Amino acid sequence: MQRKHILLSVLTLLALSLLVTACGGGQVVERVVTVEVEKIVTVEVEKEVEKIVTVEVEAEVEEAMEEAAVAEAAPTEAPAETTQETAAPAAQEGATLEIVRDRGVLRCGGNASVPGFGYLDPDTSQFAGFDIDYCKAVAAAVLGDGEAIEVRQTTAQERFPVLQSGEVDVLIRNTTWTISRDTSLGFNFVPTTFYDGQGMMVRKDSGVESLSDLEGATICVQQGTTTEKNLADVFRAISVGYEPVVGEDATSTREAYDQGRCDAFTTDKSGLVSQQILLANPDDHVILDVTMSKEPLGPLVRHGDDQWFDIVKWVTFGTMQAEELGITSANVEEMAATSEDPVIRNLLGVEGDLGQGLGLDNDFMVEVIKQVGNYGEIYDRNLGPDTPFNLARGVNAQWTDGGLIYAMPFR
Amino acid sequence: MATTSPNVNQEAAIPFWRDVRVLGIIGQIIVTVLVLAGILWLINNFRTNATAQGLDIGFGFLNTTAAFDIKEGIEYESTDTFGRALWVGIINTIRVSFIGIILTTFVALIVGIARLSNNWLINKVATVYIEIVRNVPLLVLLFFLYFGVILSLPSVQEAVRPFGWPIFLSQRGIAMPGLTPTAGFPIWLAFIVLAFILVMVLWTIQSRQEERTGEPVNKTGSSIAAFIIVAGVGWFATGAFTSDQAIMVASSRNIGDFQDFEPIYLLQIDDDALAETGVTGAALDRLTTADGVAVYKEEINELLQTGDLPEAEVEILETRLDILNAGAITVCGVENSVGEINAASQLRRQNIPVNVENEPTMRRAGGVYAAGDCDILAGRQAELAAERTILDDPNAHELIPINVSPLIVNTPALAGFNIQGGISLTPEFAGILIGLILYTGAFAAEIVRAGILAVSKGQTEAARALGLNDGQRLRLIVLPQAMRVIIPPMTSQYLNLTKNSSLAVAIAYPDLVAVGNTVMNQSGLAVQVIIIFMVSYLTLSLSISAFLNWYNKKVALVER
What is the distance in angstroms between the Cα of A73 and the nearest Cα belonging to chain B? Predict the structure, then answer.
């Protein structure tokens, strides 16, 4: 009868839902276990886990957990131990290197509207800039081809989610290194490639000479940047009232300032210099001699892949070291072949096997310098005397010249 | 004996896997389970990956300090939390949507009926407007309105003042005088209520008198007179007895009230420096009153604006302006407080230039006054008395009580970079509002036209036969019947308007999405902020459609 049918159907469905929950629940259990092992094994192991038989992984994970309990005080021992597991892939190798190699192209998050740093040239439809060159450097190191890059232009809203979600491998988009971004946003910052500060641009005929003169003024700033935050903090500290006009991207912010909606425009000083060129009358504007904050700019990668972090970090250091040693794109091959200096030989991979620790070929720096150049060449090509910016090296000079560019030793 | 009914046997014969009802239920439960499992998997995926990267899961970030400023909206400071910032964004969205919906309805009615007009010009204008605006993407329309139209208005320094009124129209918006309620305002409201009651009583009495005597009595006249008398008495009484405002000035200046500032202002103008720039005896004589100085400054400004003067002369004129402005009276007070607004207005009314030093709190304003940087400290009597006690030499300063009426006029004036005071409509708000109204109005007008055309022609002819004119026909016969057809698609248009307001981020209006973008960047928690977006827009949309569905039911024609 009716009741019998309903009873039977409900029982069937109960069985079905139990089945589904059991499958889903099982995965949950596996994931939770993997997360606990996070301290030693990277999260990429999860993806590897799905390729391998469930039983094997559970056994390995249990072993790794025991090792984690033992080796918590000495995390450096753990990588060596886990790499001895032949069944699982070397746990210290992150998946990012594998993914990039499989894909054959490096995806960088970049800018398209900041001339000199990340700019999509409307005439040639090519991306060019200081940050783009660093993207090419990483591609040259990892894939051997500096042109094997895909630049994904990002707005201020999407730049962080795009890196967090894995849509890009590295974000090189004149992003400031701050504690909150390093920790609570889940990123790792490689060494700073450009030390900058926040500045303020005003019209020459406004007679403004210091920040206090801007009492009650309207100031254009881009949304979601550290500049917006600094503006509020600095002006609160000096008790000057102002009105912010928060534009969505660099272009509309600059346009609003140019049309007179704002009395002043604030962003990193390098940004001000590059935006000034795009104004209607660049000579009518002046950048105040005021530095509102420190803005160390550089590439960043996400948490959870130490090997990828090391790769990007040491490629950056490599370009700086190359400039210090006088290695340029013109003479790198010759230096590799003929130099007797052990420091140069180590850098270019002629001696030692420094590349292996990163999972790259030993001579990865040769490709980088040959295809992109050293730090000085990258700087001069994008921001140097032959460009409209003509930015002096200033604090971005080598440490031997009194600047802050200091490469860690390659040995 | 009971016989088993044939129905029972027939039912028992259908196996459950072919019983349509059972299959229906099974199907629904399977789909529900699948959807729930899918959602759970998504949530779990996010939680696992977010934890792996060390990101915060949950909404605790709403209590973190925001550390950024929002230009317009309800009260907010950069030291407030992210939660408060998002709330400001939601209120801004509601403000734009609410006003937008009301004005769109007007535009839709007017343009929709216009397109049905027999007048060729009106008809064509409406058609062209609809066809063009419907085919332009909203973002393009917003950019055009903001960058092309509004920002092309004259700059603030050259703001247009129609008829010389204190209304400033410029690329930074429209600033006009506003009314600010003071401490006595609630009491005056009580007087107004009293006046209303009196008017009603008077009306009733006079109506009865009319009926009794048969002679018409001027009810309207006497009601208005009674109302004005009571409200007027209330105005002055409140002003005199409940005012708690005062100003603090240096005793040595012998100030009794605001009129006494004129000589001080004139004294602060350096006549010798003016003489050096070439201002001679006759011209100097004109500068003995504040009005005279104001006229003189206007003349200089007009000369400068012509723009074709030699450099040297421009310099001289500008130096003169600086000297004249150096005598400005500085008023310290809490930002947007009654005391500050009143002091500034009173001085400006006498053509004395005023420098307003805004501080967030009375303590800070008192500090600026103690440092000697302002001539007047304005605020409530009790506050000023407290500030006076912590001055170095309290006796060197005196408190002068000020009478303020229940509502004071807040006059805008150009001061430094922007216009201070008054109420203003920012160009961003104007841009997004006008853009949304133009765009949604075009679609809504077509809906109105469709609704009107849906009413059968017989109704129109019958209305004409009865002798109703066009206006009456529309109002009494056609529109009530058209409402049934108009309201459901109109609800969609209202929802579109509300959601399209999120494009405000492109023209720097701080609505929910614009503020949320900043919060996303500063906190790094994109998923949580997007969830807040979704919940907010969903709530708004559901409220609007619930209200309109109720209204639809209410005005629907009851059919048998």
Answer: 20
